[in-house]
Prior knowledge:
- This is Dihydroorotate dehydrogenase (quinone).
- Helices cover 38% and strands 19% of the residues.
- It has 296 residues and is α/β, with parallel strands linked by helices.
- A hairpin with a 4-residue loop joins strand 3 and strand 4.
Amino acid sequence: MGxxxxxxxxxxxxxxxxxRLFNELEAFGFGFIEIGTxxxxxxxxxxxxxxxxxxxxxxxxNRMGFNNEGVEAAIERLRKKKTRVLIGGNIGKNKVTPxxxxxxxxxxxxxxxxPYVDYFVVNVSSPNTPxxxxxxxxxxxxxxxxxxxxxxxxxxxxQPILLKIAPxxxxxxxxxxxxxxxxxxxxxxxxxxxxxxxxxxxxxxETVEQIGAGGLSxxxxxxxxxxxxxYLHTKSAGAFPIIGVGGISTARDAIEKLEAGATLVQxxxxxxxxxxxxxxxxxxxxxxxxxxxxxG
Length: 296
């Protein structure tokens, strides 16, 4: 994508939503850090409690709802950046913005963040903003991405634009994603966001039911995410870079994503359960795998 990453392990969006911690987080060894999801105007997000641990599944359920202080507040902190770590800007729409006006929110965030981030991620796949996932449909998504690509050309910008997709898409929807990437010329895909599927959990069903709505992340989504990556990579014949995210806790999990066709990986829930040392362990494991792969 025209960027040089110091290592392939990044921090997924949602952890440093408001760009408060990227200077400190780099010290844990992340090759890149994705801030956001940011929206044009501040919003509180959904009522608390809205984040739940499922320890038996090494997973989380969240229904945060794009809680953030707004893009301008994040920019004030990005202006004081002290590290060289690559920053991704994950952008979305405000909850009160109707879908037919959503493009304006994405363009606003794009314009505001342009001088401060190294790549952009268009988030239309969170399950926690009402009707947001409808923007993944072919027609509105193509229009949104074409608009952002036009803005990129007008600005003479070089920052790649990526699309973050849900793990719950059907194969025909994934085929549409491949077509859309080709048609719009965006730079890549992040696969995947959280899932609304609850199948196969060890946590008692009544506990899961009490928690209620939200996106499931962590070990429970690992194989689902990997299959999406494999499908996109195989069906497109490797036509675009994929950042793999979903259920990565170990080097083996990360390598599974790379073998499926990902170029880079991101962590979130695994980082919460395993702690900061995980990043270095995964990088060391990938290095060993790469050396053996190169020799082989």
